[in-house]
Design a protein that fits this description.
By secondary structure, this protein is an all-alpha fold. It is built from 15 helices and 2 strands.
Length: 324
């Protein structure tokens, strides 16, 4: 997996460096506190998968332009804003091994920082007259908000049907990766038909990405994401939904009761994990993930053969084989 990322960084390393410089510039503020927080955010950057999707989608469809860097910056500004707000909503005090913004500066500052990042993205797109990019990303913001609220609404009963689960993750997780691929393609000036194909490609990848995240919660090893986090947060994941659908009424009632009322008890959480493992939830979810990946690859196969297509496939495989 590391080799796939290494190959991508080797191929678009110069472009990634240019993006990072432009992204840092886009985050600057004249307010000392805000500028300090922006430096902190840049310092704790993640793997930059979404900017990679933007850059590679552009290369697949004609080549990276100045508009592509605007697209990558917009996507990363939006992504960072949602992470800051998510940490406030979830009362999370750590992300990627660093303290969250709300842990260091408080929830009020964190909400305002998220708003600032979102506003910077909107202003950047207007300043560069990139209205199609603004449209694509504004739609992603709307979808993410709707998905989060739909999850909150449905989580009260903790009896989510599979089709509702897929609608939630399509909006919450897949919409941003979808917009990253669409924006990368749009930045090259290609046809609307191809932009929408890349948007659908990103959506399939985003869904596969979330299913893999679900699977990590039930992992059988001791690396990566800690086990049972989603259960403790009362999140209904695909392996759990499948396991509940295969169970008796009494088992279903028992497991839902644990998730709802005993989710902080380590032994009870482990009971849910074992229930899912023994009910076939893991292989079922893994097959669903592979199905979405294969559908994404089928869309890619409609595009001409070139290095960018292979790098995109490598990036996709990395996202669904990761251990954290």
């Amino acid at each position: 997996m590391a080799s796939a990322i290494d190959a991508i960084r080797k191929s678009i390393g110069t472009e990634l460096d240019s993006f990072e410089n432009k992204f840092k510039e886009a985050m600057r503020s004249k307010v000392p506190l805000l500028d300090k927080i922006m430096h902190y955010i840049v310092h704790r950057k993640g793997k930059q998968m979404r900017p990679m999707f933007v850059l590679l989608s552009a290369r697949l469809n004609g080549g990276i332009t100045e508009h592509t860097y605007v697209a990558a910056s917009l996507v990363e500004l939006l992504h960072t804003a949602t992470l800051v707000h998510d940490d406030v909503v979830d009362e999370s005090y750590e992300r990627r091994g660093f303290f969250s913004i709300n842990a260091l500066w408080g929830a009020k500052v964190a909400v305002l920082v998220g708003d600032y990042l979102l506003a910077k993205g909107l202003l950047l797109s207007l300043e560069k007259k990139q209205h199609r990019l603004l449209e694509l990303l504004s739609d992603a913001v709307k979808e993410m908000s709707e998905g989060e609220l739909l999850q909150i609404e449905k989580a009260r009963k903790l009896d989510i049907k599979e089709e509702i689960y897929f609608e939630i993750i399509r909006q919450k997780t897949a919409s941003l990766i979808s917009s990253a691929c669409a924006c990368g393609a749009a930045s090259t000036g290609i046809s609307e038909e191809k932009i929408l194909k890349m948007k659908l490609f990103g959506e399939k990848i985003g869904i596969a990405f979330q299913i893999q995240d679900d699977l990590l919660d039930f992992g059988e090893d001791d690396i990566g994401k800690p086990h049972g986090i989603d259960i403790k947060e009362k999140k209904m994941t695909l392996p759990l939904i499948y396991a509940l659908n295969q169970s008796s009424r009494s088992d279903k009632r028992r497991i839902i009761n644990i998730v709802k009322n005993h989710n902080q008890e380590k032994q009870r959480v482990q009971e849910v994990i074992e229930f899912v493992r023994n009910s076939g939830g893991i292989p079922y979810a893994r097959e669903a993930m592979k199905k979405y990946r294969d559908e994404a690859f089928s869309i890619l196969d409609e595009f001409p053969e070139n290095e960018s297509k292979e790098l995109l496939k490598g990036l996709v495989n990395y996202t669904i084989e990761r251990t954290k």
